[in-house]
Amino acid sequence: MTAQARTQDAAAAVAEPELSAQSELQGRFDDLIGADERIEPRDWMPEAYRKTLVRQIAQHAHSEIIGMQPEGNWITRAPSLRRKAILLAKVQDEAGHGLYLYAAAETLGVDRADLLDALHTGRQKYSSIFNYPTLTWADIGAIGWLVDGAAIINQIPLQRCSYGPYARAMVRICKEESFHQRQGFELLHDLAHGTPEQHAMAQDALDRWWWPSLMMFGPPDAESAHSAQSMAWRIKRHSNDELRQRFVDISVPQAEALGLRIPDPDLRWNEERGHHDFGVIDWTEFQEVLAGNGPCNRQRVASRVQAHEDGEWVREAALAYAAKHSDKGVAAA
Amino acid sequence: MTATTEASTGSASPASVAQYALQLGDDALILSHRLSEWCAHSPELEEDVALANLALDLLGQARTLLTYAGSLEGAGRSEDDLAFLRTEREFRNALLVEQPNGDFAVTIARQLYFATYQSELYAALCDSTDPELAALAAKAVKEVAYHRDHAVQWTLRLGDGTAESHRRMQAGLEQLWPYTAELFFLDPVATELVQQGIAVDPRTLRPAWEASVAGVIEAATLTVPADGWQPRGGRAGKHGEGFGLLLGEMQALHRQYPGASW
């Protein structure tokens, strides 16, 4: 019986099953979650679960493609050909991550074009970190080390997320992200151990990117709107504050190895807790950036919309060609 | 590699081979730069991946060729010295690769012309008596086969897509056609090396190039542009006005911190 329910077509399930059937489906879903098994696209799932995943996966995909802008800003100016190749490959990976993630979202019955429209019209968000500008070359290192580092801490638990396609996309993405993180660290290491000007450039980047990176874990647990339900559904496995603490604890010795100073006078080891204490995050800044008032929000979205609009005739041409040259298209015409 | 190979390349001046490697390397470097300008601005996400991939292949070719040129010169110049510390007049790339991206059709026209040329060039260069160039060509010929295929697929789609895409693709082909002549002109550097079996005589590549490009253009329901104005000068370091701006951007950071390593 339950096996039957599991293979039941999701579309059929939408057709308002009777109350008993509904609760049986819900029971089956709860059992799968309880047993820490994966929910697959063909499985019945509560509408709220589906919506939460669409929101989260789309936001993740949008972050990948918006994130190409601040990094792309330095490809043409990279100071060595080796660094240029590394950066180009990294930005290419990000476009690839965007592709897998949109594909994962599409398994939930949405369309990439609609998700992009939601990004372009501001109905869906992307990670706020990308609303900060890359002012110097060292920012490329800081993004790799801190931003990708924070992303990995967020994403490693997502490899065990209850939704199968998202969990699997995350396995590949995490591997590539950890590569990017090491490259960012190495870039900063070379700067920090280079000329005094290069060292200052690296320190300045850390000064500007540290606090926004801590904000990447989202608001404090007490104020996080979606956390409790996402944890119950096993989409999320650790709280925002827990992951933030892990990031700080990992980053402190790394900053020491770089010979750079983390811009937080309250940062110190707390023997009793076995963790670093750190200063108070400026959540007003976070809320402002989230509300669209960061340094680059308008520019990022405008640039994305521009690329999309400039490319419309190309996408139309590809569709027209496909219609002309497929037998189906000919038959339908 | 073998005694015969060494004997046949031994009589060519290393400075000439270095100049030839610079021509090929600068072509790859500058086109890579132009393609990388598309990053995050292309018509769809798949193209962001594809164009970055093309740029990355070309950058790899450029690095091999500039490193080789530097080693032949014997003046201790690295790939970065050659990329970041030469002036406009010292670059040896053909004018075609420095042409601005324009709309997507202009970029595709440039890709179709240049990737087809590189396919023919590298296929022939696999037989170079210079083992370094032959090895580079053997690797690159596989990469540019993909570049050419990418350009062909898009030429067909744009040419035989909508009225607007047809118009734009034809305009792109027309705009860049004049710059293709330079690719097949035998310059003084290559002349000596062709006799040694080191370089490929670019004139011999033209018939296959033309047949291939014309076949694609016609299949795409487009018209092969007519010959006319044939600008040249890139191989002699006489570039367009926009080239200085390109180098200004590419070299700014490197030049800002003389002697720093990255």
TrEMBL record, chain B:
Keywords: Oxidoreductase. Pfam families: PaaA_PaaC. One of its GO terms (molecular function) is phenylacetyl-CoA 1,2-epoxidase activity. Its EC number is 1.14.13.149. This is Phenylacetate-CoA oxygenase subunit PaaC. The lineage of its organism: Bacteria, Bacillati, Actinomycetota, Actinomycetes, Catenulisporales.
